Each structure stands twice: as structure tokens, then as C-alpha cells.
Amino acid sequence: MKKKYLLAAMVAMALPAAAQETYQDTKLVQNELNGTARYVGMGGAMEALGADLSTISTNPAGIGLFRSSQVAISGGLVAQQDATTTPSLSNNFGIHINGDKTNASFDQGGFVYSMRTGYKNYLNFAFNYHKSRNFDQILTAGNKLNNASQNKLTAMKYPYLTDYNINAVDACYSAMLNPIKDASGKQTGLDYLNGTEFLYGQYQKGYIGSYDFNISGNINDRVFLGLTFGIHDVHYQSNSLYSENLEKETSTDAYESLKITGTGYDLKAGVIFRPIEQSPFRIGLYVNTPVWYDLHEAAATDVSMFNSSNNKLDKGHAVDYDYKVYTPWKFGVSLGHTIDKMVAIGATYEYADYSRIDNRINDGGGYDDWGYYYDNSSSDDAMNSNTKRVLKGVSTLKLGAEVKVMPQLAVRAGYNYVSPMFNQGGYRDGSIESPGSFYATSTDYTNWKSTNRWTCGVGYTAGKFFADLAYQYTQTNGDFYPFMSYYDTANSGNNVIVDATKVNFKRNQVLLTLGYKF
């Protein structure tokens, strides 16, 4: 089979929809370790140490430890390790992905303005932008198929194929598969073809930009308080190609083009205190509200079937809709200590229960008596029940240290562990009575496991100027599935069972921060 190229999906018809799906949500809800190079170099474990612009988005009280004003800007390179843009299997069965493995990134820019209000008291105002999520990623997977295929899964859903319980992929296959009829001519099913092997390739890109506005201060240099209002700007795009080799010298291609945009907002509050007046040891506590996202998705899928004579059937569908997603609350506790102004040590623990994500359906809107527009939404109970089954609470541990080997030169190191978000055995259920399933334009999903991050860095100060450099290596392993398994208790021959394919995501980041204190 000759190589195919990753293209945007063709649009054949538009379908209305109004809610989101669990696996799509997970692209938006978790933040990455990013910000200033000092923060990244110390593994982000600065929620009790404070005095870094990046703490504005976790523990806002950290801004209260500034004793002078500061401006800083950060950027660098992000590179994916071990990614391939030309995955292949047997029989010259391959695809090509138009994606970049290395990308430049603008990661942070902000300032803090510090005012003395008393002998030991300060009132600080700050603004900071940082890229809380970098979506740049190439994902490829390939494996054998045994009595299973994407079109067989559609056939097994028959005779339940209606506009309200199939997705866009099913709609394409159901229009192309030959009908099975009984002796009276009544259609009883759809004729399918089993697969022998599959290849999948996806290139996703974009970011979530977070814009944080902070007010903070302290009481007698022992208690530090902070409040941050955040705005989140979502720009996500992906193009993917799923290909199958089928029996009878037939093959299929399923293209998807997906774009998610929108905004959200949240509040963050925190406190840092020194329990012992004569000691620099401090404790930080903070809470982040949900991010209340208002989003728009535009997606399309195009499915083609080819036979040995190069005959082709092709069907496409597109969706375009608005919806809301509310992320869970996040709680954190942090410890920090400094020794002789030469050593800083930090540790942070965060927890967020992602099974509590609230998928919401837009129910319409209007104008109130004052002329302001409002929109109504309600929880998608079916999808939220699925989210509780698939996702779980996530713990994040951050450790970091800084040592000044010279008054002007510091070296740093850090480590993060992020526990898995997905329950073992979780899957993308295409049978849920939810708009988020009805209008899905793909069937694949990945159950990502724990994330490990290792960081290091250096910092140099020259008068009021400073420069920091950090390196971060991130690795996450996962189990990829091209579609959900289906079990027919009455007829095991109808079973559609697909095994996991091991995948990983390895990323290297180099980050530079330049700043000025005044």
C-alpha cells in the first residue's frame, strides 16, 4: 500500500452539538511545569519560598515576599525526543506526519511592583503571563488487529444507528458499508471487514496562555497573603490519520482535523507564614478555584475505503459547537527553608480530583433587563458519570533546591512526580447518551500514566540585571487504543477486542529568563 499523507479532514455536512467528551477534557485541565527559568530549575517547588513571578499562578502569597520591583521575560526551545514523522509497519504500510519535533516557545513575561507600607510591611501588585500548557506533540502508534476494525465496531452498533447514538465516524462507515438483509428484504445489519493491522499518526500544536493579576502583602514580615485573578486563553489544533489494512485486500483511512479555542477564568488564594519568628522556615497553603472554561470546537472527519482495484468510497462529516468545561478545585501545601542566604530548599504537594470535571451543555441565552447578554448551561450528567469512571484524583510532588556557589552565581535542581490521571481499564466510551459522544470525530484514546520531570539550572546576577537558564526533561508513558473494545455476550464472534499499544512522550526544554530589578 503506498504511503498516505496527513491532511485536514474534508467537510461534507455540519452537525450541531453542545457538550464535550472526557478524553478531550484532559487536554485542557492539567498545567505543565513552566514559567521563569529559576522556577523551572527548582522543579517549581517555590510555593513557600516565594519571591518568584511564577508563584503568582499557584500560591499568590509568594508575590508578597518581593522587597523590590522586578520585570522578567522567558523563552526557549522545546524538543520532542524519539518522535518519528514516518511510522510504518509491514507491506510498506506507512504514513507521513507534517509536524515539527522542535519548536521555539515564548513562555513567560511579567512584572511586580513593590511598595513599602510600613517598617516591615509591603503591598505588591503583579502581572504575569505564562504558557501553562504547550500542546506541541507528535504521537504515533501501530499494531496488529485480530478480528477487529473500526468499521466492525460501527457494524456492531447496528441496528442502533440513529442521529442520536452514533458519532461522526460511525455515520461515515454506515453510509459506506453494504447492508445485510433477510429473506424478506429487511435490513438486519451491516457487512464489515476485519482488520489485520493499523497505523496512527497525530500532530497537535498550540498552547494555553495564562494571564494572572495579583495583589499581595505581608504582616510584620511573618504572614504573607496573596490573591490572583487569572484568565486562560486556549488555542489547540490537531491533525490525525488513522489507517487500517483490512481483509480482502482492502484498506481504510480516517482523517480528523480538530480545533478548540476559548477562554476561562479562575481565582487563586494563598498564605505563607513563618511559625518561628527567628527562623526563615516557612509554610505555604493555597487553593485554586476551578477554571471556568467557555469553549468552541470545530472538527471534521473524512473516512475513505479502498480495494485492490483502487476503487474508493469516501464520506465526511463536520461538527461546530460551543460548550463549557469546569475543571476541579486544586489544593496545595508547601514547605520552604533558607540557610545563611546561600541555600534554599523547597517542597510542594498538590492535589486535584479530575473525576470531578464538570462537562456542561449550553442551553441557550438572552439579554437581561439591563441589556447584558447571558447564557445558560447545565451539567452533562451522562458524560460526568463517565468522567468519574475514567479519571481520578492526581497528586503532584515538587522538590527543589538552590545553592549559591558565589554571591552572584547559583545552581539549581528539581524533580516532579505527577500521579496518573486515568483509571486502569478506562476507555473512550462511544455509546454514552451524550452530545460529547454523539458528535465525536475520532475514536482513539490514550491512557497516560505517571509523569516524571527532572530539572536543573543556573542563575547569574550582575547588579540589577539577572539571567537564569534551566533545562527540563519530561517523560510520560501510556497505552494507546485506536477504538474501544466491544463485547457481545450473546455471540462472541461479534466481539471487537483491541489490545493496548505502548507509547511515550519525552520532551526536552531549554529555558532562558532575563530580568531587571528596580
Verbal overview:
It comes from Hallella mizrahii. Keywords: Receptor, Signal. This protein has helices spanning 22-29, 37-41, 150-157, 168-176, 381-390, 435-438, and strands at 4-5, 14-15, 70-81, 95-96, 102-116, 122-134, 137-148, 179-181, 187-190, 195-219, 223-246, 250-273, 282-288, 292-306, 312-326, 330-339, 343-353, 358-367, 373-379, 393-406, 409-418, 445-462, 465-481, 501-517. It has 518 residues and is mainly β. It has a single domain, classed as Outer membrane protein transport protein (OMPP1/FadL/TodX) (Porin).
- Tell me the strand order in the biggest sheet: 3-5-6-10-11-12-13-16-17-20-21-22-23-24
How many strand units?
24
The CATH homology group name: Outer membrane protein transport protein (OMPP1/FadL/TodX)
Number of domain units = 1
**Which strand-content bin applies to the residues?**
over 45%
Q: How many helices in DSSP terms?
A: 6
Shape: elongated
Topology:
Layout: E1 4-5, E2 14-15, H1 22-29, H2 37-41, E3 70-81, E4 95-96, E5 102-116, E6 122-134, E7 137-148, H3 150-157, H4 168-176, E8 179-181, E9 187-190, E10 195-219, E11 223-246, E12 250-273, E13 282-288, E14 292-306, E15 312-326, E16 330-339, E17 343-353, E18 358-367, E19 373-379, H5 381-390, E20 393-406, E21 409-418, H6 435-438, E22 445-462, E23 465-481, E24 501-517
Parallel strand pairs: 1-4, 2-15
Antiparallel strand pairs: 3-5, 3-24, 5-6, 6-10, 7-10, 8-9, 10-11, 11-12, 12-13, 12-14, 13-16, 14-15, 15-18, 16-17, 17-20, 18-19, 20-21, 21-22, 22-23, 23-24
Helix pairs in contact: 3-4
